[in-house]
Design goal:
The complex is a heterotrimer of chains A (82), B (136) and C (725). Chain A has one domain (3-81). Chain A contains 4 helices and 4 strands; from the N terminus they run ββαβαβαα. Chain A has helices at 21-30, 46-55, 66-74, 76-81, and strands at 3-6, 9-16, 35-44, 58-61. Chain A is globular, with a radius of gyration of 11 Å. The N and C termini of chain A lie far apart (28 Å). Chain B has 136 residues and is of the alpha/beta class. Chain B has a single domain (10-126), classed as Response regulator (Rossmann fold). Chain B is built from 5 helices and 5 strands, in the order βαβαβαβαβα. In chain B, strands 2-1-3-4-5 form a 5-stranded parallel sheet, with helices on both faces. In chain B, helix 2 packs parallel to helix 3. The longest helix of chain B has 13 residues, at 18-30. Chain B is globular and about 35 Å long. Chain C has 5 domains: 1-130, HPT domain (Four Helix Bundle (Hemerythrin (Met), subunit A)), CATH 1.20.120; 257-319; 349-406; 410-582, Heat Shock Protein 90, CATH 3.30.565.10; 596-724, CheA-289, Domain 4 (OB fold (Dihydrolipoamide Acetyltransferase, E2P), Beta Barrel), CATH 2.40.50.180. Chain C has a 6-stranded mixed sheet. Chain C has a 5-stranded mixed sheet with strand order 6-8-9-11-10. Chain C has a 5-stranded mixed sheet with strand order 20-12-13-22-21. The longest helix of chain C is centred in the first third of the chain and has 27 residues, at 2-28. Chain C is elongated. In chain C, 38% of the residues are buried. The chains are: A alpha/beta (82), B alpha/beta (136), C alpha+beta (725). The interface between B and C is large, with 58 and 66 residues. Chain C: Keywords: ATP-binding, Chemotaxis, Kinase, Nucleotide-binding, Phosphoprotein, Transferase, Two-component regulatory system.
């Protein structure tokens, strides 16, 4: 699984695909104050991004991938995470 | 420099835009400066000669006499030639900055100035301690 | 910041006005350097001032204007009527925005797009073809709304805009829209936003794509499109041109401003220049460096600094031990004495009105002093009283004059819109018109100016539309191809006169007579009996000039009766004279002020009435024998015109004057569509009165403009002759 769920923290690793959509949606919905770690994420499917934009979890670490880093930093997620 | 009587350094703001003058006055007065205004280079020189300021902040484009000319004349006046000067302009090109320095400016600020930038520059060029928030 | 904001509003209004005037002058004479400079400076100042506030589209537009003007100034672009149109549109837009800012404090939501469209129009370049410059920004309206930050990220020049709204079901077909952007070369900006507001997570279908992507690439369109080969139906690309961002990043960024400033001072020492220039720069640098060091808490001997400022190297060494990061102790900040700026005094109109009313009352009360003095007889006290009354009299006169002057404004206020109106209308009609304005400094009461504005525009428009002919026709008639429209204002016997004259086709009285008959306003005999002047005057008759066909016949357009009505409502009147082939002249005669009306006092059946002087063309005695009567309809020949005569007693339902008299006292009233002789028992003084509208039960009475009290305290009714007739 490219996304590891650990209580209120989800770690995105390598290529996160559309397969992760439903589990992520359920986890985001079930978690009171979700946090995500995107540092190891190399690809983020649009469906996942859309969920993140809707749920606005705290981003504990931004992606190292340059393209994703830009996407996240320009989104409300990036601004929220300081 | 800072007056001994408790009044702050005198800044002469020369700009033909009343809004910009009012903005500078507000920002600088809030920081304890005493602000004088002039609407063009000629009036700026007149004010400066009448009461030499501790700093002049000059706009570039003004009718009657522009900022460059005013600074050149200022620098030729024995009593005023060392008065620190900031040139302020909407232009951000390096060549505009260069022109300002050539005319005699000590510093160049692009309009619109951020209040804290204006205050910090004015404090530095008038020798007022920056205070806690001013220095990085 | 609201005071500052207000200041901006006022400044912007003034600048826009100046710019409008300069643009008109410049269009007339493209070589007019002073106007180019004026216009440039206006745009430039607006740019600087607007940038102090959150109104990026405004700044964007005036910046584009400034750029255009700078090209004009350097001769890299020429003035054309088309470019003038664009600049006028930009100024108009700015004026609307300023109005919106004044009203609502913010620019309207579509400001970004409007600014972009207008700015694009301005940068159209000499060719001005649709394809030149600009690109297809209107296809990507969001480009105009970029934040400063985004604009900086995007850079300037020609970019490729990408608008990608994925099919909501695209996830099922294996698309990953975000991934496609990895393949976009030179991606400058990527904005990802929900196409619709995102629903709460619980109600969201995670497999439906609701995002929309907008991006800018520095690569050409052809280089960008391959990335979206799989979704051609969901993506739009096109090239757009972005002008440079106008708010550059703060100069000092993260580094210490003091350090950068010190570095700059050393650089200044190295700048080229004459020995004298370099010497004075050195002096300024020495003082600046000393000040900066002091500010940093490292006060240094001025002499030492000055010595170090000999050349770059020594100043560098002098500063080498690190231009202080040493935090200084904060000194208590003295509060500066605030100098009160001098301002024009603004007075609320209501207070002004109250003052005028009081002055009016005072005049009336003063008038009652006269009879008192007379009653006091001849004693010493009476003499003193008389002297005192005379003094009060002159003081009240001065006061009234001063109060009146407070309300006076130059007619320039109503003249100002005319050059632009003439320019635009003439251009639309393909006519060439020279506008001559005279007497803009003439003053009139603010209320009068308010009344005057609309009719004046109407007259000017009419003259352009229907008076002045097309250039070919003018040439054929042996006139200069350019028509002349003259608007002249001057003061005349206590009132103000505004005259609009043209050298156009004029009005043909014969055509007017025919039209009046055709419209059933007059029977053929009555029409034939009209003098030429009265036939021309028919344009003011209600319902006469409303048909389009008339304008072709008469050379006059619609709504002249509205002009007449407005003038009369203000206690004035309108006159017209025209010579076919030579032009038309229309005069608006208005009182100097609305609150004080000058009336001719007349007597009928023992009561006093007032007739506004503005309507009175003359007063004279007419021998009974000169009055012709057909049944009860009487008429008299006055100044070579047959004028209907009415008797005020009859109009007011009073008994006929039984006294045997050799002649009648007649007031000639000019009522726009024709003169009327009003027979009265007697004519008295002319008096300035404060007109009070009828109140209470009197309000229902027709035929009266109001009541007024004369200087001696007597009450008069001021007649509204038009209504009465």
């Amino acid at each position: 699984m490219p996304i590891r769920y650990d209580a209120d923290l989800a770690c995105f690793e390598a290529a996160c695909t559309v397969e992760d959509t439903l589990p992520l949606a359920e986890w985001l919905e079930a978690t009171a104050a979700p946090r995500v770690d995107l540092s190891a994420c190399t690809e983020l499917h649009t469906a996942l991004l859309q969920l993140l934009l809707a749920a606005r979890p705290a981003v504990t670490a931004g992606p190292e991938d340059a393209f994703l880093a830009r996407v996240i930093s320009l989104s409300p997620l990036g601004r929220g995470a300081g | 420099m800072t007056g001994t009587d408790g009044s702050g350094p005198r800044v002469l703001v020369v700009d033909d835009a009343v809004t910009v003058r009012a903005f500078s006055r507000r920002v600088l007065e809030a920081d304890g400066f005493v602000v004088d205004e002039a609407v063009n280079g000629i009036e700026g020189l007149e004010r400066a000669m009448a009461a030499p300021p501790d700093l002049v902040i000059v706009d570039v484009n003004m009718r009657k006499m522009d900022g460059y000319t005013m600074l050149r004349v200022l620098r030729r006046d024995p009593g005023l030639r060392d008065v620190p000067a900031i040139m302020i302009s909407t232009e951000s090109k390096a060549s505009d900055r260069e022109q300002a320095l050539l005319a005699g400016a000590n510093w160049y600020i692009v309009k619109p100035p951020r209040p804290e930038v204006l205050v910090e520059a004015a404090r530095l060029l008038t020798g007022r301690p920056l205070g806690g928030e001013g220095a990085p | 910041m609201s005071e500052l904001f207000d200041q901006f509003i006022v400044e912007a209004q003034e600048l826009l006005e100046t710019a409008g005037g300069a643009l008109l002058a410049l269009e007339r004479d493209p070589a007019d350097r002073a106007s180019v400079d004026e216009l440039f400076r206006a745009f430039h100042t607006l740019k600087g001032s607007s940038a102090l506030f959150d109104m990026a589209p405004f700044t964007r537009l005036v910046h584009a204007g400034e750029d255009t003007l700078s090209l004009l100034r350097d001769g890299r672009r020429g003035m054309t009527p088309d470019l003038a149109d664009r600049l006028f549109r930009a100024l108009d837009q700015c004026a609307r925005w300023v109005a919106a800012l004044e009203e609502a404090g913010t620019l309207p939501a579509d400001a970004g797009e409007a600014a972009e469209a207008l700015a694009r129009g301005l940068s159209g370049g000499p060719a001005d073809g649709a394809a030149a410059g600009g690109g297809e920004v209107e296809a990507f309206p969001w480009v105009a709304g970029l934040t400063d930050e985004e604009r900086r990220a995007a850079g300037e020049g020609t970019l490729t805009a990408i608008d990608y709204t994925p099919d909501p079901d695209c996830f099922f077909t294996g698309d990953d829209p975000l991934a496609l952007f990895r393949r976009v070369p030179d991606l400058r900006l990527l904005r990802i936003e929900p196409a619709h507001p995102l629903p709460p997570l619980a109600q969201m279908d995670p497999y439906r794509c609701v995002l929309r992507f907008r991006a800018l690439s520095g690569a050409a369109v052809e280089a960008v499109t391959p990335a979206f080969r799989s979704v051609p139906d969901q993506v739009r690309t096109g090239s757009v041109t972005l002008s440079p961002a106008f708010t550059p990043p703060a100069a000092a960024a993260q580094g210490s401003l003091a350090a950068t400033m010190l570095e700059e001072q050393t650089r200044i020492l190295d700048l080229p220049g004459s020995a004298a220039e370099r010497e004075s720069r050195r002096a300024a640098v020495a003082r600046a460096v000393a000040a900066i060091l002091t500010a940093l808490g490292r006060p240094t001997q001025r002499a030492a600094v000055a010595a170090a400022c000999g050349d770059v190297g020594s100043l560098r060494r002098f500063l080498a031990d690190g231009p202080g990061e040493t935090p200084a102790v904060s000194e208590p900040r003295p509060s500066a004495p605030s100098a009160a700026p001098r301002r024009a005094l603004r007075v609320e109109p209501e207070r002004m009105d109250a003052l005028m009313a009081l002055v009016g009352e005072l005049s009336v009360v003063k008038g009652q002093l006269g009879p008192l003095v007379r009653r006091a007889g001849d004693g010493e006290m009476a003499r003193d009283l008389k002297a005192f009354a005379a003094r009060v009299d002159s003081l009240v006169g001065d006061l009234r004059h001063a109060a009146l002057r407070l309300r006076l404004l130059p007619l320039a206020r109503v003249f100002d819109p005319l050059p632009r109106l003439v320019r635009d209308t003439a251009r639309r009609l393909d006519k060439t018109v020279e506008l001559v304005l005279e007497g803009a400094e003439t003053e009139a009461d603010k209320d009068i100016l308010d009344v005057l504005g609309e009719p004046l525009l109407h007259l000017v428009r009419n003259a352009l539309d229907h008076g002045i002919e097309m250039p070919e026709r003018r040439a054929a008639a042996g006139k200069p191809p350019a028509g002349t429209l003259r608007v002249r204002a001057f003061q005349d016997k206590g009132g103000v006169v505004v005259e609009v004259s043209d050298d156009g086709a004029g009005i043909d009285p014969a055509a007017m007579r025919r039209a009046a008959v055709a419209k059933g306003l007059l029977d053929p005999d009555a029409a034939a009996a009209l003098s030429d002047a009265d036939a021309v005057r028919l344009v003011f008759a209600p319902g006469f000039s409303t048909a389009g066909s008339v304008s072709e016949l008469s050379g006059r357009g619609v709504g002249m009766d509205a002009v007449r009505a407005a003038a009369e409502r203000a206690g004035g009147r309108v006159e017209i004279d025209s010579t076919p082939g030579n032009g038309t002249r229309v005069c608006l005669l208005l009182p100097l002020t609305l609150s004080i009306t000058r009336v001719v006092v007349v007597e009928a059946a023992g009561s006093l009435y007032g007739i506004p002087v503005a309507l009175v063309g003359g007063v004279q005695r007419v021998k009974r024998g000169e009055i012709r009567a057909v049944k009860r309809a009487e008429s008299v020949v006055l100044r070579d015109r047959v004028v209907p005569l009415v008797r005020l007693r009859r109009l007011l339902g009073q008994p006929e004057d039984e006294r045997a008299r050799a002649d009648d006292c007649v007031v000639l009233a000019e009522l726009g569509d024709g003169p009327v002789a009003v027979a009265v028992d007697d004519v008295g003084e002319r008096a300035d009165v404060v007109l009070r509208p009828m109140t209470g039960v009197l309000r229902g009475l027709r035929g009266y403009a109001g009541t007024a009290v004369l200087g001696d305290g007597r009450l008069i009714l001021v007649l509204d002759l038009r209504e009465l007739l």
